[in-house]
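Long-time lurker, first post.

We've been arguing in lab meeting about whether flavin-adenine dinucleotide would sit comfortably in this protein at all. Half the group thinks yes, half thinks no, and nobody has a model to point at. So I'm putting the question to the forum: if I give you the sequence and the SMILES, can you give me back a predicted structure of the complex? Inputs are below. Any interpretation is welcome too.
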Amino acid sequence: MTFDCSFLEGLPLAADRISVADERRESHATDYGTERLDDEGVLPNAVVWPASTADVSAVLAAATDHGVPVTPYAAGTGLEGNAVPAHGGISLDLTRMDAVVDYRPADRQIDVGPGIIGSDVDEYVAGDGLVFPPLPSSGDISTIGGMIATDASGMGTVRYGEVADWVLGLEAVLADGTVIETGSRAIKTSSGYNLTDLIVGSEGTLAVVTEARLELAGRPDQVRGGRAIFETLDDAVEAVFDAVRTDVGVAKIELVDGLSATMATEYLGSELPDAPMVFLEFHANHGVETEIDLCRTIFEDHNVARFEMSDDDAEMAALWQARREMAYAVSAYDPDLEPLHPGDVTVPISSYPEIVRETKRLADEYDLLVPCFGHAGDGNLHYSVLVDPDDPEQRTRGEDLYREIVSLAIELGGTATGEHGIGEGKQRYLEPEHGAGAVEAMRAVKRALDPTDTLNPGKIFPETADGERLTEAER
Ligand SMILES: Cc1cc2nc3c(=O)[nH]c(=O)nc-3n(C[C@H](O)[C@H](O)[C@H](O)COP(=O)(O)OP(=O)(O)OC[C@H]3O[C@@H](n4cnc5c(N)ncnc54)[C@H](O)[C@@H]3O)c2cc1C
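Top reply:
Settle the argument with this. Predicted structure of the protein with flavin-adenine dinucleotide, as tokens:
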């Protein structure tokens, strides 16, 4: 749909902060999750790079007045089409609001603009022995604003929690341009509705985050990592469940199945064995060896073939690079195959062995390649259904398989999306997961904060069957 965005010229924004050039609009029409297969997205009519909260407020107030949708955009690494402008309008690119606004090491807190890259926060505070612990695997290419909007999480989540756990407060702008502050500098509060947690994970549909107050953690004195190699995938996932149930002090516990290991070896040229593996990292200020010994004992109960720990920085870096680049390795594996959608389901840890087993069984039944890896300690499974994009029958088969896995995760008491959000890709699962009443309550929140459906329309909630923007009555 085409929206007239000429009103932007009347706003107090520098000319180089607005573009209607095709190249700029095209680069804001897709994200990592949608740029593959044949999904070309809808072009926004204009791209705006605000420099301040006042800029964001002016754009939102004017866009709401003119009935023009606004979709916040950051690094575009989202995997569910979260930042693609489903109905055109304005792509509001927050990446230039990337300053450190205030840093209070004594309180272990930092206030940042939303466009700062996650690992830049870590670099900024490293000199004081501090770290922002919930960074996703994409922490060096994605922004704090994007992580907050998707409630991202990562390899350290098994020990440190998700992004929501580290956000003390926000400055955010509502659809009508109103600037609000949420939370405080205190590490706890029971004052009023928790608007911080409401905005975290709302995928830019309720407010635009213009500043985030983050909590930091101390870096551990002892860090040891390594890998455990198993003969069977079943043993590997049962070992993970047992280690988490026993409360072993792991900071990272990641599954890599044999197929993913083969793909990583081909992609990186690394020498990963062609076998199911669990990558591990232990953090402690003292007694790290005790935790490692406990983990080894548990893994031995599950027939671990090799349990290899190291404190060599280079070795550990190579190991984690292989894990971080797994998504690229999967995409690059076979030029004739593409991942259908990035799969991200999460189940209670006791059901983790079952979801992994069933995924592999379904892969055999549907006769498709499905590499599995992920943040196993959280019960999180990343799976990619690989299909030939030019073969409609194979695509349909892949879609059926994909859906079976998500539905099973929900049946097991889990979630359709552990960390990537609903975006466009997971809308059909919102109601099966939450029930009609809860979804209507979510819609009521959206109506209350954004009655004109200005912010990121077409996300989270299923739309009309023909993909049209919802009418006021339908909202
Ligand atoms: C290789 C790879 C590995 C990944 N690994 C992980 C992982 O381990 N864990 C994980 O959770 N995710 C992972 N992701 C997904 C992705 O990196 C995260 O979802 C990330 O948080 C998105 O950040 P972004 O800056 O790219 O945001 P974008 O993709 O640009 O936007 C994401 C969402 O945030 C909204 N948004 C952006 N900025 C704002 C703002 N200031 N205010 C309001 N809304 C805003 C957008 O509208 C959109 O809905 C991975 C992606 C890739 C490509």
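For your lab meeting: The CA atoms of residues 431 and 438 lie 8 Å apart. The two ends are 19 Å apart (CA to CA). Whichever side wins, do check it experimentally.
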